[in-house]
Amino acid sequence: MNLNNKKLTKNKLIENLNKIDIKKISANEINFFNNKRILITGVSGIIGINLLFFFNKLNVEKRKNIYVDGTYNTSLFEFVKKYFKKNKKINFFKLNLNKKRIKKSKKYDIIFHCAGYGQPSKFLKYKSSTYKLNSNTIIDLKNNLKKNSKFIYLSTTEIYSGNEKKCTEESAGNTGSTHPRSAYIDSKRFGESFIVNSFNNYTIFRACLIYGPGVKLNDERVLNQVILRAIKNKKIDIYGGLKQLRSNLFISDAINMMVKITAKSKNQIFNLNNHKMITLGKIFSMIGKISNKKVVNRGSKMIGSPKVIRISNRKILKTINYKISVDIKEGLLRTIEWYKYLILV
């Protein structure tokens, strides 16, 4: 690939991250963020990086003054760093929040705490870090809030694990300390409890299966792995679990919902998920048709997959009068396009 093609590829990736439709955000909601100083921890993750591009889009297209600091631990896309290199309103700093605190002198109007391990393979491997990011780090970040500021926490719907009924925000899970994922589940539960009892202004999002542009090549979640196989291999190998139900939420809808709630609501917990459920088998079949590749089921049961949990998102949709706009087919097409360009960088 020549240099011009590489530049074109990077531009396509940036274009994908800039596709969030800000028309869904009202003028009052946009103005809520104007002149705010915002911190996004975990800015290299799918939610963090899309929040970053969303606020930058408000600066550029709506001529707002929103200042964003973003922390990341291991890596941030180089093309993203380069894109924002001369942007005086955007600043990145590499920081392991498990080992170092953000200076107390840095104060923010809004903190989005997105740092953490959303991939099961990661939080099962880095258990101590998982506990710390959802406890010590939150306690430390409280010192970086201005007066009358707001704290946004990315929790997880996995806290409902073991509950076989339809789960609302008032529901509880049914797992103990010996559960294989207890480091993740219980630390998120602690994070929520600490925030509810210690912060004056907060919003907690229990996120579920969010996908789309912004994910990395080494993301080991099943949907992303199957998409990569569809792009790289002559056939798509899958390993059972075809009847398992999923409710994947595309990233642009997730960001719009988060932003609208942040501007409108106070001291609430919301499920952040899609109410439409589909089997993995149908998702894999759609990926096969889009990529024109044969799907081959190797028949082994996927290890560690949670049971189906029916989660209600009625509260968040009603609060902001929102309708999810990106269906699974469009979401898959856009995620496949993202990965095709990402492989070439």
The DSSP helix count reads 13
Report the principal-axis shape: globular
What's the CATH H-level homologous superfamily?
NAD(P)-binding Rossmann-like Domain
Q: Which architecture per CATH?
A: 3-Layer(aba) Sandwich
Q: How many structurally independent domains?
A: 1
CATH topology: Rossmann fold
Q: How many strands in all?
A: 13
Fraction in beta strands: 15-25%
Overall pLDDT level: 91
Give the helices and strands as they follow along the chain.
Answer: HHEHEHEEHHHEHEEHEEEHEEHEHH
Largest sheet: 7 strands, parallel
Describe, in plain words, how this protein is organized in 3D:
The protein has a single domain, classed as 3-Layer(aba) Sandwich (Rossmann fold). Strands 3-2-1-4-5-6-11 form a seven-stranded parallel beta sheet, sandwiched between helices. Strands 7-10 form a two-stranded parallel sheet. Helix 4 links the parallel strand 2 and strand 3. The longest helix has 17 residues. The termini are close together. 41% of the residues lie in helices and 18% in strands. The mean pLDDT is 91. With 345 residues, the chain is an alpha/beta fold.
